Amino acid sequence: MQRVVLITGGAGFIGSHLADELLVHGYGVRALDSLLDQVHDGNGRPEYLHPDVDLIEGDVCDADVVRRALRGVDSVVHFAARVGVGQSMYQIADYANANTTGTAVLLEAILDRPVRKLLVASSMSVYGEGAYEDGEGARVTAERTAKQLERGQWDIVDAHGRPLTPLPTPETKQPALASVYALTKYDQERLCLIFGEAYGVPVVALRFFNTYGTRQALANPYTGVLAIFASRLLNGKPPLVFEDGQQRRDFVSVADVVRACRLALESDRAHGHAINVGTGRSVSVLDVAERLGEVLDVEVEPQVTGQFRAGDIRHCFADISLARDLLGYEPQVDLAQGMMELADWLEGQVAEDRVDSAAAELAARGLTR
């Protein structure tokens, strides 16, 4: 009998790629998605969504719709969420409702319609700053202050004024929630893990790092940074790079992310764990902006703004040892290959650039300085 997986948020960027991955491996797929205008521009079912996906249009906060979506389902992958660090800082109720309340509604529905396994998409944002070591080689936990950032002091330094050295961030690092978005993603993660422990449901939380790839909404100014940069470049405008551009991130291909999800569905070793999904390598945001311009053959230099945004962190990239151990996960797409694949897809896309309006909104609210 074919196993059917429900993907909440399944018509979105990562969800649609996971649907493809699962269909190839013999699963049936149902998607529950609200088709939010900010992501889908009111265009209905996306053309890229595989025709074999059973799509239910509806809100994960609607208990009746969720119960209907769960009928005949073997497992659930919970991706449904509002995504955007900056936007979450002023659309607080919307983010708390979609992410936290939506997860609670899903879990209550699963009580009446039990499933074999539940995966939940968490985020690297729960860490706040990543892991660091000081000049003596000791691991330290540190955060930046608003006063420090207002002085343009971007790096975290020790008591002697020496910059700390960023390290791959393990799952054992204490969360430090720097934005409303981060808080709600941690809510999703913890709600699901607590639920799984209480009711004996195998649950795995996957902490995605900066995921990029085809199908990311180019008109959404709060989506992943590579899609935002691409939207600017396709319109002949410079990517806006905050601070000095030297902040480092772990950019992971959506192909690797969805493979990690499938491995988590199939593994019995990861139950009850929160697991990083990244590459274990870091690159500066400015470097990524410059390299994207090169692969798109657009001669527009990034604009380093010297400003900072509330909720942003300096460095964070993944320690993927646990994913290797529990899932047998190994990233297969390096950044150069992934950016070429993204560039090929972008050739056929029309990108409406809404970054300036989003930046103006953040500035008007005092969230960029």
Average pLDDT over all residues: 94
CATH topology: Rossmann fold
Question: What structural class do you assign from the helix and strand content?
Answer: alpha/beta
Number of strands: 17
Approximately how much beta-strand content do the residues carry?
15-25%
CATH homologous superfamily - what is it? Answer: NAD(P)-binding Rossmann-like Domain
The strand line-up of the biggest sheet is 3-2-1-4-5-9-14
Instruction: Report, as a whole number of angstroms, the end-to-end distance.
Output: 57 Å
Q: Any idea what the shape is?
A: globular
H-E order: EHEHEHEHHEEEHEHEEHEEEHEEHEEHHH
| Domain module count | 1
Poorly predicted parts: none
- Report the total helices: 13
In helices, the fraction of residues equals 25-40%
Biggest β-sheet description: 7 strands, parallel
CATH uppermost class: Alpha Beta
Folded structure, characterized:
This protein has 369 residues and is of the alpha/beta class. It has a single domain, classed as Rossmann fold, CATH 3.40.50.720. Helices cover 37% and strands 16% of the residues. It is built from 13 helices and 17 strands. The chain has a seven-stranded parallel beta sheet, with helices on both faces. The longest helix is centred in the first third of the chain and has 21 residues, at 92-112. It starts with a strand and ends in a 5-residue tail after the last helix. The mean pLDDT is 94.
